[in-house]
């Protein structure tokens, strides 16, 4: 940071993908904003293993100057003539069958280990950005002057001019924003309804996740199709999507082809929108492997091989944040999962957090944005990112149900099987359309041009 007085202070709650990315964007485009990141844990870590980013996210990485480093830790889909993902109908014990393959390299994601990605961002974080560990934000309060006081679980406080909650699914920033709004928000909002937005709801989806060494898999199942693209280059990964009724498996290699990342996904529509049974400490927990094996007992051998080799799967009860009436109030904003945690069936949640961070960071860093302009900058961010993130969340849920044979097919004839060739073709079309919606969404670099135009209009 330059020696001159900063134009304002930004506090970011949460050093996850969204929070760290935001700090990096602000620091890249402005040298006179003081940035403090407050992280609840005693280290910058990230839960889970593999993560995928679509080309739109990679374009942001390019703008930020971290693209080459991200590419260095990524595996990529095969060239155009090799489809990936390959979708199979797999809940047939003796062996399933190929449903279709998507030849869409232009829209297909790069995959990597989450921690590798976090390290890339950390390496680009300027030293002037202070990351404070073991600082669990509990709440915040705004003074009449606009200054914000952050209260931490260790009973300490800090002050800031702008607060961004990037504190994930169970965001305290979101909770505090809506608890406050429920007391003070003027019409047209109905105050009595606002406190319900503090909470999340269970999506009905549970996901068992694990990593398996590829050499172990290939010793056990030498011709496993997931290896078929690996002979070209270990940075090429084929995605296999093994679909069944109420469940699916998805797997792809990461770590230069050394590890297979898989997710075993189950869906119970009766539980969608309910409170998850048991304490929230059980939302992510290690589970006995047998539990997962029993759920996929009817699966074909290529899917069962992943599960057989799993050592300690962890089960994630997937919770979502529904559509919120707003993401910003005054000089406070929420981004990423705090604002729009969705099901992971499009592999786009972290990408959406990065898009938020990109746009918000650029708006805050813009020379035209003085402290008095921050509420307007935040409103511009919300106006552009919110509809996109909500569409991704809807499409992701739709996608999951399409994988799992849970969407209605109005064209199904009496007596026709939902897996007849014609019905599968209709389902394929819907799947491709749902996935294409992400590709067709406005490019993040165009979004920035639009945001800057709005900022300069004043
Ligand atoms: C099974 C699964 C697979 C997924 N796969 C993909 C994928 O392939 N591609 C993709 O784009 N997305 C994927 N996602 C979604 C993605 O993981 C999330 O959308 C993304 O991690 C959100 O980033 P975030 O920074 O908003 O939140 P988080 O990653 O949750 O980070 C929040 C940070 O805030 C900290 N924190 C929490 N509370 C506090 C507090 N009170 N005070 C201070 N710090 C706090 C946390 O410790 C954490 O460091 C997947 C999600 C799941 C569940």
TrEMBL record:
It comes from the Eukaryota. GO terms for biological process: secondary metabolite biosynthetic process. GO terms for molecular function: FAD binding; oxidoreductase activity. InterPro entries: FAD-bd, FAD/NAD-bd_sf, FAD_monoxygenase. SUPFAM superfamilies: FAD-linked reductases, C-terminal domain, FAD/NAD(P)-binding domain. Residues 9-177, 327-395 form the FAD-binding domain. Keywords: FAD, Flavoprotein, Oxidoreductase. Gene3D superfamilies: FAD/NAD(P)-binding domain (3.50.50.60). This is FAD/NAD(P)-binding domain-containing protein. It comes from Coniophora puteana (strain RWD-64-598) (Brown rot fungus).
